[in-house]
What we know:
Blueprint: E1 3-7, E2 10-13, E3 18-25, E4 33-39, E5 46-51, E6 58-60, E7 68-73, E8 78-83, E9 92-99, E10 116-117, E11 121-126
Parallel strand pairs: 2-11
Antiparallel strand pairs: 1-3, 3-8, 4-5, 4-9, 5-6, 7-8, 9-10, 9-11
Amino acid sequence: QVRLVESGGGLVQAGGSLRLSCAASGRTFSNWAMGWFRRAPGKEREFVAVINWSGTSTLYADSVKGRFAISRDNAKNTVSLQMNSLKPEDTARYYCAASPLLILGTRTTHSNEYQYWGQGTQVTVSS
């Protein structure tokens, strides 16, 4: 059974940092793009960041560019999201997802291009 399990969420003050992790099991994702999405209460799920299969290419939403950094460790089948300078508007449930696309681009910002999803981890940023 393929599973993606997120961890690292929590409550943090504005300006603080959190590091989210996603551990995959049941198959290797070393040749898959791995992304992070988020959904805030009352809002649509939105793209946050994605990293290609080799870790050599990344893509970020404008809202998090310069503050968040995505990375992966294929040997451990994990992907991480370092979140710095957090803002109250970053409050959301964050989801890890896997896409078979090899090249990053517009398609990898669309949730329907992702085949596997985790259950999410809650991030709350207080002002």
